[in-house]
Amino acid sequence: MGHTSILLTKGSLNNMISLTTILSGAASFDMKIKVFVMDDAVWAFRKDRYKDLKVDSNIDGYAESLKAGVTSGVINTWYDFMGDLKEFGEEGDITITLCGLMADIDKLKKEDFIDLVDRVATIGTFIDDVFEADKIISM
Q1: Residue 115: CB partners within 8 Å, gap ≥ 6?
Q2: 28 — phi, psi (to 5°)?
Q3: CATH number at residue 86
Q4: By three-state DSSP, how is residue 109 classified?
Q5: Which pLDDT tens digits describe the chain residue by residue (139 residues)?
Q6: Which residues are CB-contacts of 34 (< 8 A; sequence separation ≥ 6)?
Q7: The CA-based dihedral angle spanning residues 92, 113, 120, 115, taken in that order and rounded to the nearest 10 degrees
Q8: How far is CA 1 from CA 33, 35, 133, in A?
Q9: Which stretch of DSSP H or E encloses residue 58?
Q10: What's phi and psi for 97, nearest 5 deg?
Q11: Which domain, by its residues, includes 22?
Q12: CA torsion angle for 113, 120, 85, 57 (degrees, to 10)?
């Protein structure tokens, strides 16, 4: 069996929560998931920024409600939930790869990112993953 490849390009709080929701569904079906992170989503994984992401929405009140849900514990923080999901299955069931070009723009190395990150690599890594994937999701 192959895996599901996810291309993550937006690092907003609501997008990161959506990603973890998709990961939890996939994990419940014992699917292997490879996430390739590029564009501004790379910065969402920085040690100095991951706890303070903005909500991307034009709907009045949505940002405040989402943040209140996280603050109250009704919604898990994306990074704690993703960490739990990575520990849930076997090693390698969920892998997070950050785009090396995006990291290079800000002269960032793997150690500048939170521990959820498995590696920093080129877009070729994602292209290789796509050839083996059963499903592809872009978000």
Answers
A1: 83
A2: -65, -20
A3: 3.40.1260.10
A4: coil
A5: 568 999 999 999 999 999 999 999 988 888 899 999 999 999 999 999 999 999 999 999 999 999 999 999 999 999 999 999 998 877 889 999 999 999 999 999 999 999 999 999 999 999 999 999 999 999 9
A6: 3, 4, 5, 6, 94, 95, 97, 129, 133
A7: -20
A8: 12, 17, 9
A9: none
A10: -115, 130
A11: 4-138
A12: 70
Q: Which two tokens stand for residue 120?
A: 């920093």
Q: How many domains does the chain have?
A: 1
Say if residues 96 and 116 touch (Cβ distance below 8 Å). yes
Look up residue 132 and give its two tokens.
Answer: 């083996």
Residues in the chain: 139
In one letter, which amino acid is 127? I
26 CB contacts (<8 Å, ≥6 apart)?
Answer: 4, 33
With beta carbons less than 8 A apart as the criterion, state whether 75 and 66 touch.
Answer: yes
